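Consider this:
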Amino acid sequence: MYTAISTWPDIAYAVQHLSQFTSNRSSAHWSAIKHIFQYLNRTCNYGITYGGGNSIPNLEGYSDADWGNDNLDHKSISGYIFLFGNVPISWASQKQCTVTVSTMEVEYMAASLATCKAIWLCTLLTEISLLQNKPTQLNIDNQSAIDFMKNQGLH
């Protein structure tokens, strides 16, 4: 779990999914864990490079969710990633607390989670004197969730 949090954003979903079975693992779970370790072993020379530039880059986020693909409890998975310039600085994949009834609702909840993280990251950047030139952009891929966010009369 530490590896997924600290250095490998591409295994965040797999680690999140397997962490649900820490107290009741089966042979299929052990096999999946071995695949993750094999992947880490093959890609240990890859990495994220944080380089400097003349201007301060902007923070940009991406949010997405699946809708109830977990057959055990029918809860959805939210995920986000934030890039500072073109470099990932924060990412997560986590199960939502409630069962949603539509794709709009699940994407809205994922965007809400990402928005909380964006506010925290903007505050952090301000505290370390990295003021952005333009607002943080959060990209989501569900038009009905975007319309719901824009139209305050629906709330």
About this structure: The chain has two domains: 1-47, 53-155. Residues 86 and 110 are 22 Å apart (CA to CA). The domain at 53-155 is CATH 3.30.420.10 (Nucleotidyltransferase; domain 5).
